[in-house]
Amino acid sequence: MQDLIKSHENKVQLSFASPVIVLGGGDFSPEQLREFVSKGYPLIAADGAADAALALGMNIAAVIGDFDSIQDRQAFSADVKLIELGEQETTDFEKCLYSVDAPLFVCFGMLGKRVDHTLAAFHTIARYGGHKNIVLMDQVDLTFGVAGDFEIDLPLETRFSIYPLRPISFEKSVGLKYPLDVLQLGVGDRIGTSNETDQSRVRLTVAANQPEPYLVILPRTHFEAIVKLISQK
């Protein structure tokens, strides 16, 4: 019988030294998911996404959620941890984040298919992106939650977008075709999408007392640059 952990508290249940994969119920590429599983990253399924992982023959480390959409919890092998969280104040994605400690969360199935789920994923980064490294992956892009100053090495002419989750002011930018010097970004006012690198290193400096997370969106092929960045923290 597999482990079944029932909890109503927002506390860490699992800890990993490596990045982990979180699979949600939205659109994802099975081939892309297999690519990341092959890196040895543990796979955590958010509730009913576990059924999709099982159908693909994936090894699952844990299933986390309120368990309202899993078809058959007896289908999991004995080494899969089932963490049932009955609270309804958060999404299953959030439950995965607050239940797991890891240096990086690589998330599939959080974008596409349903707009409301995509918006909920952005909301989750707004809540957790200040203290957890979260990357949302799809077949085209990666969306990384950033809080505070940001610096990364990228090839010239890399598409580089910034999307504010809350109003945020930038003091200066280096390495972008369209600088962000002394600019405030905010939804419905000004955003920073479809920019481009014009130097090999990009530096963003936010104004003082600006701790709120924002999104950096890059082509998905630059995932390893994110891993390198996190490993240097």
Automatic annotation (TrEMBL):
Coiled coil: none annotated. Keywords: ATP-binding, Kinase, Nucleotide-binding, Transferase. Residues 43-130 form the Thiamin pyrophosphokinase catalytic domain. Its EC number is 2.7.6.2. It holds the Pfam family TPK_catalytic. Gene3D superfamilies: Thiamin pyrophosphokinase, catalytic domain (3.40.50.10240). NCBIfam families: thi_PPkinase. This is Thiamine diphosphokinase. It comes from Maritalea porphyrae.
